[in-house]
Amino acid sequence: MKVTVTALASTLLLGSSLSAQTPDHRAAQAHDHHAAQTLGTVRFETSCAPSVRQRFDTAVALMHSFQFGRAIETFNAILAADPSCAMAHWGIALSRWSNPFAGFKSPAQLAQGLDAVGKARAIGTGTAREKAYVDAVAQLYVDSARRSQSERLKAYEQAMAAVSNAYPEDVEATIFYALALAAAADPSDQTYARQRRAGALLEPLFARYPDHPGLAHYIIHAYDEPALAARAAGAAKRYGAIAPSTPHALHMPSHTFTRVGDWQASIDTNKASADAARAAGQPADVLHASDYMIYGYLQTGQDEAARRLVATSVEVFRTFDPARASGAAPASAAFFANAAIPARFALERHAWSEAAALAPHPSPFPNADAITFFARGFGAASRKDGATARAAIAALEQLRGKLADTNDDYWTGQIDIAMREVSGRLALAEGDVEKGLADLRDAAAREDKTELASVTPGPFLPAREILGDMLLSLGRPTEALAEYRASLERDPNRFWSLYGAASAARRAGDSAAARDHARRLLELTRRADPSRRAALDEMRRLTG
To answer: Which domains, from first to last, does the chain contain?
Structure first.
């Protein structure tokens, strides 16, 4: 159903209905917030009262764009109108899980979700299909003290597979199953088996239902890896137009744009997303969009715009209340961005003194806190400040221990990489070339085996880019060029990888490669500030 409606007070107004099997019919969905709301085209069949059918579609459309707070409000409005609608409690339970790609779920979330499952079961579902949906979402919450979050997520995936297989005509079952597949993917599995399976389910449906918000959204998530990102191009171009009333629909295309190195497209869509999130009172989403935005600014040399974003992000974080996060970005994403934005600003400008001086701001999330200590350590190591660098490594080790205690293998591994980058840089600064290169090669090998979490637009400094810098400084340009090329394969169009590749190629005597990399960097930096003039003037000389 095409979702454009004006909402009055708390009333939910919807137009004509759309069967998921008859996409030629369109329905307008609306929510409050005193504005026309365009959310996309959704039809979710239930046995609830006919009077709440269109409201239910609105709530599901909001879930598909990760507008969980608004979805819960809408499901509660449905229950006020039809207390026997057990499936509204299913929707609340799934919304309480929030962003499935986010990390740790709090005890409060788990308790609220389990409570919603219990209420759905107490009321009793109207059909076997509805019971299957409720039993599936229960897998996210039941036995949380005994089963890990990963185990429960995979159990939910299997349960949704059963729903999809039992009801092949139910488009929504297939969509939610595909989302579960992508969310349960192992970040170390570089066959991308689950992501490919999810995409194979979603793409044919997207061709049939091009206005469905979940289809566009989850295709982007399924292919949110550099090796797969080009497959999401069509969905990325469409999603913002499908559901422009949701900040996340305006942000999500930037995942694809970032993975392929289309920096200006990422900047533009994140500007729109941050503005929409600010208007919706979703500061966590403002911060998450700003982290992606500053990454784009810094890859294109727009340092002054990045500087302004650092300042405004500080103000946004002051308005953030972790207990009130209601959009796509969970509290953890806000803390992550709060640490990431100033760290990126220093590291991507090679402002090592600024990086070394960053002040830690302890949070409930060790992976967020690790960002500041990595920046401090790497900045200090680059300045040959061994005491500060070693203190940062010790802090990273402590944070790693906290994550290991929670069996968070992914972020534990990311801190392992960060520690080796700092220790390798410090060893080289202190003249221990053998140890320095060994640590950096170890970091690069580890980084090669894992993929980026969706919370981050990119690495703070890619290990192979650092390794290239170090090899170039040691007068080994041919080896350096190989590392820069490997870095660009994984993270396309990064400023310093292109700059390094051009410089290394020149010193290795490969003038054609030097010219090609320099030209590419100059194309990407047409809006660059004078702060990058020296580096870009050097690139211009290589193209002459």
So the answer is: 43-245 (1.25.40), 322-543 (1.25.40.10)
